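Figure 3 (text version): C-alpha cells given as input.
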C-alpha cells in the first residue's frame, strides 16, 4: 500500500490541474502514476494505508501585525553636511510652509449630540507627568495622575465605507466599525522637524496641513462626531467630573526571574541549599513528562498594553492643558504617551443627556468667552480657600472663687 507524508500529499495536489482531470472528475491512472514517480518525497512501503502528519513545534508569539496605514517613519532626506546659511534658509522655508492656518478648506459642519444614536467622540493623546495628592472638602485624601495634552491635532479621518473595503488578516472591519457606523480618526501629538522623516510619512499630514507628529493614534468615532483634519484639541475636550478610559504600555523591566516577575518566595537561604535561592522549582510532574501549560516562568516583564476604565477627572488646568485623573496606577513610566477617551462603561455613558454632555464633537475656543484657568470638581477642596472655618459664638465668663472650697459637715 501507499504511505504518504504531508509534503508528498501537497506535491500531488499541486501537480493536479484541470487538464489532468478527465470527464469523470478523477485523474487517470497513467497521469497519477507519473506524478507519483516524479515526486522524490513519496515512500512506498508494504504496510497499511495511512498518512504520516509532520509534527510542528508550537511556540507562543505575540500577535503583532502592522496596521494598513503603516509607513516607515525615520530615514528622511536630512543632510548634516550643509552649512549654516543653508540651514537658516531651510528653517525659514519650513516656517513659511506651516505658518498658515491648517484649516485651509471650508469648515466642516459640526455634528450634534443625538440620544437615539451612537455618540462616540475621538480621544486625546497625552503625556504622563506624575502623581500628586488632592483632598476633598470632607478631608479625604485621593491620589491623582497628571496627564498633559501637548500639541494635539486631528490628522486625518477615514470614513466607514473606506474601512469596509480594506481587508486585514483578521477581517474584523465589520466588527470594529459596528456594521459600518463608525469611522476612524487619526490624532497626532508633538510636532517635530519634517526633515527627520520619510516622504511616505509626510504624506499622512498633507490633508491636515500641520507639521509631522512624533506620535500617532487612532480612535473610532461616529459619523456625527467627525472633526475636520487640522483642528487642534485641548484638555477642555473633557469636563470635570466625567469618567474616561486610559490606556498605555506598562513599565518595561526587561528579562526578570520568577521572584520579581511573579512574586515567588524562592528557595531556602540555608540548610544546604546550593544555587537554589531564587529559582522557581519544578515545572512539571513525573507522569506528564512535559511542562504544564501556563506555567509561570522567567521572561520579559512589563511593556504590555493595559487599559483602566472608569477613572474620574477631578481637576483641569486649561492654561497648560493638564488633566488630573483619579488614581496613581495609570500604566506607563513618566513622560510616556497615554491614550484618553470617553469611558465605554454603560453606567458612565448613561450620565450623558441631550442637556448635559461633553463638548460635542470637541471643544472649540471662543474669543468672546473667557475660559477659566483652573476648573475643580464640586467635591474637591481648592487650595485658595480656607481649610478650617469656625462658627461665631459667645464665650461665657467664668468667675473665680475666693479661697479654697470648704466642705460642709452634715450635722
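Below: residues designed for each position.
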Amino acid at each position: 500500500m501507499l504511505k504518504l507524508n504531508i509534503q508528498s500529499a501537497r506535491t500531488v495536489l499541486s501537480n493536479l490541474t484541470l487538464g489532468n482531470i478527465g470527464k469523470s472528475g478523477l485523474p487517470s491512472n497513467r497521469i497519477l502514476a507519473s506524478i507519483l514517480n516524479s515526486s522524490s518525497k513519496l515512500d512506498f512501503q508494504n504496510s497499511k494505508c495511512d498518512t504520516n502528519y509532520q509534527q510542528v513545534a508550537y511556540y507562543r508569539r505575540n500577535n503583532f501585525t502592522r496596521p494598513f496605514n503603516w509607513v516607515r517613519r525615520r530615514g528622511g532626506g536630512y543632510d548634516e553636511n550643509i552649512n549654516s546659511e543653508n540651514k537658516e534658509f531651510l528653517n525659514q522655508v519650513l516656517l513659511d510652509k506651516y505658518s498658515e492656518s491648517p484649516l485651509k478648506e471650508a469648515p466642516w459642519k459640526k455634528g450634534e449630540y443625538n440620544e437615539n444614536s451612537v455618540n462616540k467622540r475621538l480621544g486625546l493623546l497625552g503625556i504622563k507627568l506624575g502623581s500628586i495628592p488632592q483632598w476633598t472638602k470632607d478631608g479625604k485624601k485621593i491620589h491623582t495622575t497628571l496627564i498633559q495634552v501637548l500639541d494635539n491635532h486631528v490628522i486625518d479621518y477615514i470614513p466607514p465605507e473606506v474601512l469596509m473595503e480594506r481587508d486585514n488578516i483578521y477581517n474584523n472591519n465589520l466588527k470594529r466599525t459596528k456594521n459600518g457606523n463608525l469611522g476612524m480618526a487619526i490624532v497626532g501629538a508633538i510636532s517635530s522637524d519634517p526633515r527627520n522623516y520619510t516622504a511616505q510619512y509626510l504624506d499622512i499630514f498633507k490633508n491636515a496641513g500641520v507639521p509631522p507628529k512624533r506620535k500617532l493614534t487612532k480612535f473610532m468615532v461616529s459619523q456625527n462626531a467627525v472633526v475636520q483634519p487640522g483642528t487642534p484639541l485641548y484638555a477642555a475636550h473633557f469636563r470635570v467630573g466625567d469618567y474616561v478610559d486610559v490606556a498605555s504600555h506598562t513599565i518595561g523591566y526587561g528579562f526578570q526571574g520568577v521572584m520579581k516577575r511573579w512574586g515567588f518566595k524562592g528557595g531556602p537561604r540555608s540548610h544546604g541549599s546550593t544555587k537554589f535561592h531564587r529559582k522557581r522549582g519544578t515545572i512539571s510532574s513525573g507522569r506528564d513528562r512535559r511542562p504544564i501549560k501556563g506555567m509561570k516562568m522567567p521572561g520579559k516583564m512589563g511593556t504590555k498594553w493595559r487599559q483602566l476604565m472608569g477613572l474620574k477627572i477631578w481637576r483641569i488646568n486649561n492654561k497648560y492643558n493638564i488633566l488630573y485623573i483619579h488614581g496613581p496606577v495609570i500604566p506607563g513610566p513618566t513622560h510616556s504617551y497615554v491614550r484618553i477617551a470617553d469611558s465605554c462603561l454603560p453606567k458612565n455613558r448613561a450620565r450623558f443627556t441631550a442637556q448635559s454632555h461633553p463638548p460635542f464633537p470637541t471643544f472649540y475656543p471662543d474669543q468672546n468667552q473667557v475660559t477659566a484657568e483652573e476648573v475643580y470638581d464640586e467635591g474637591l477642596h481648592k487650595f485658595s480657600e480656607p481649610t478650617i472655618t469656625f462658627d461665631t459664638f459667645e464665650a461665657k465668663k467664668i468667675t473665680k472663687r475666693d479661697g479654697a472650697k470648704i466642705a460642709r459637715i452634715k450635722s
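Helices lie at 6-15, 29-38, 84-98, 160-165, 173-176, 199-202, 258-262, 346-349.
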